[in-house]
Amino acid sequence: LLSISCLGDCQLHTSCGIQKCTTDFVSFTSHLNAALEDFDLEFCKALRAYSVCTYRNSKVCRGNLVYHSAVLGIGDLMTQKNCTKDGPTSSTSPEMTPDPCNYSGHTEAREHQGGEKTPPPTYLFCGLFGDPHLRTFKDHFQTCKVEGAWPLIDNNYLSVQVTNVPVVPGSSATATNKITIIFKSYQDCTDQKVYQAVTDDLPAAFVDGTTSGGDGNTRSLHIVEKVSGKYIEMHARYIGTTVYIRQLGQYLTLAIRMPQELVMAYEESQDLQLCVNGCPSGERIDQSGHLPLPVVGKRLPWGAAAHPRSWYTLETATTKCHEKMLVKDIYFYSCVFDLLTTGDANFTAAAHSALQDVEALHPSKEHWHIFPRSGGGGVGRDSKFFVSLGLVCLILVAYL
């Protein structure tokens, strides 16, 4: 964010400590991730520490161009990030033990203890939406039945269970109507907290009525209500984990971002985790796209009393999904698939929101979009629509 160089005159200002100020600022911010909820708070603390350091060097650095560039840059960033001039600052003593309830500081702590530079933590993403579509921590995309209660995640720090119910009478199509999350007790950061959401009851609090875990001042675990009864976020700072839950129509969606080392911290008995290993083969609907091709263009009625005339053809479903999703990736085709299967337009919003959650939480922008494959090989962004559509049609036959 700041581009500061020595400009070739550092030897003329050997008593000026601006280089140390800049190095400390880089150290304080290098581990921060803009996708995490506490980014602005920690970045402002680092900026204030940078500002204090430059002030202390104001006299000896008076003629140093690097110093003046840094002062101007700090002021601009303070304005951009709405940082107050007064407030807490990042520690200027690297030997001090970082906050044990802030996962993003754990790597830095290990560096100080071991003396070796360690890479920043790797984060993984998992999402569940529609009827139902699963994106695993390995970026595998599957469409499954999984009716009833199933574990999405079950490790030493977190358990997430979803319950799926049929959406169309006489069909194996299901969607999520209940989510239960258990944040397991961890040191002094939080005691065990249980969260539960069901259709038409998406609370902004844990089951015990609280909205945070551990010391309320540290906010190591807390819930943020974004849209009343429709969208909440959970931020578990002590394990570097963020969870989004939404209600769209009569069903729930979930997206989660978690450090890889914590995702893999589970016992052999906990191996049934949809986010880790995907759906069991007997629950898969999409068998890698190799299924008999049904008759394209058949009208599929919704069948529910609330939607007596909600009919979609391949053409109208495609048009409806294209209104919100311009890129013809797997989320687009999942939208078409869901409309043909259920006739419920809320699944269009679910697919669109699922992609938005990927863009907010997935650590690798180049992997945001997944493109479907048909029998002969991969299908890319520029492939013709009817070729990619084969996946939707192939999957659809398993529901009928």
Can you give a write-up of this model?
It is built from ten helices and 16 strands. The chain folds into two domains: 17-81; 123-295 and 311-367, 3-Layer(aba) Sandwich (Protein Transport Mog1p, Chain A). With 400 residues, it is an alpha+beta fold. The strands form four sheets. An eight-stranded antiparallel sheet has the order 3-2-1-12-11-10-9-8. Strands 4-5-6-7 form a four-stranded antiparallel sheet. A two-stranded antiparallel ribbon has the order 13-14. It has helices spanning 18-29, 39-56, 65-80, 106-114, 260-263, 274-277, 314-322, 330-342, 346-361, 385-396, and strands spanning 123-129, 133-135, 141-143, 148-154, 158-166, 174-183, 193-198, 212-213, 221-227, 231-236, 241-248, 251-259, 300-301, 311-312, 373-374, 377-378. The longest helix has 18 residues, at 39-56. It is found in: Cell membrane.
Please state the average pLDDT score: 79
Total helices: the number is: 10
The major β-sheet equals:
8 strands, antiparallel
Secondary structure class reads alpha+beta
CATH topology of the largest domain: Protein Transport Mog1p, Chain A
Run of helices and strands: HHHHEEEEEEEEEEEEHHEEHHHEEH
Q: Taking Cα atoms only, what radius of gyration do you get, to the nearest Å?
A: 25 Å
| Assembly of the depicted chains | single chain
Fraction of residues in helix: 25-40%
Q: Give the tally of β-strands.
A: 16
